[in-house]
Design a protein that fits this description.
About 55% of the residues lie in helices and about 0% in strands. By secondary structure, it is mainly alpha-helical. The protein has one domain. Helix 5 packs across helix 6 and helix 6 (about 110-130) crosses helix 7. The longest helix is centred in the middle third of the chain and has 22 residues, at about 80-105. Keywords: Signal. This is Gluconate 2-dehydrogenase subunit 3. InterPro entries: Gluconate_2DH_su3, TAT_signal_bac_arc.
């Protein structure tokens, strides 16, 4: 799977163009974020749990194993423009508010089932938002970064997808057996 295919998959899975996708063409710039957009260990832990709810560990690694929460903080700080950073950071607060309103407890204290229900609710909400708005929904950003971070990580590429470090010659048609993993390269 090449980057272009991955971005198409992410867009299809989230119903929106990849937020910050221009960085794949121009690259990221390391810069110190404003005080209100700085992440701390609590944020990373929360983002890991959100990502793990989206891609849980099964018989293969999950998003937390690939340290997707930390990946998200780097992408938001170094690759998102200030308006996207603002949406993402407000989204962390909005997700916590949604958790408190729906379950009367913070996201980190929810059961796995309640986390899944809340994430599913936010996913539906974000798809409706993306259908009628030009600005991205915060959950779309979180989900896109989860998918991108996981499937481009060493764990995602080698233990979930099939990976060949040197893929060799081009084969346009490769037999597929039901249940086979997709290719990372």
């Amino acid at each position: 799977m090449n980057r272009r295919e991955l971005l198409k998959m992410i867009a299809a899975a989230t119903g929106a163009a990849f937020v910050g996708g221009n960085v794949l063409l121009t690259g990221c710039t390391r810069r110190e974020p404003p005080e209100e957009y700085r992440f701390d260990a609590t944020h990373v832990a929360l983002l890991d749990e959100i990502a793990e709810t989206i891609i849980p560990r099964t018989n293969t690694p999950g998003a937390k194993d690939a340290q997707v929460g930390q990946f998200m903080t780097v992408m938001v700080n170094d690759c998102y423009i200030s308006e996207e950073q603002a949406v993402f950071h407000r989204g962390i607060t909005q997700l916590q508010t949604a958790s408190l309103e729906s379950y009367d407890t913070a996201f980190m204290d929810l059961s796995p089932g309640d986390r899944h229900s809340l994430i599913s609710q936010l996913d539906r909400e974000s798809r409706l938002h993306n259908a009628g708005q030009t600005d991205p929904h915060y959950f779309t950003m979180m989900k896109q970064l989860t998918l991108f971070g996981f499937f481009t990580s060493k764990l995602g590429a080698t233990e979930v997808l099939r990976y060949a470090a040197i893929p060799g010659h081009f084969e346009g048609c490769i037999p597929y057996t039901e249940g086979d993993r997709a290719w990372a390269t």
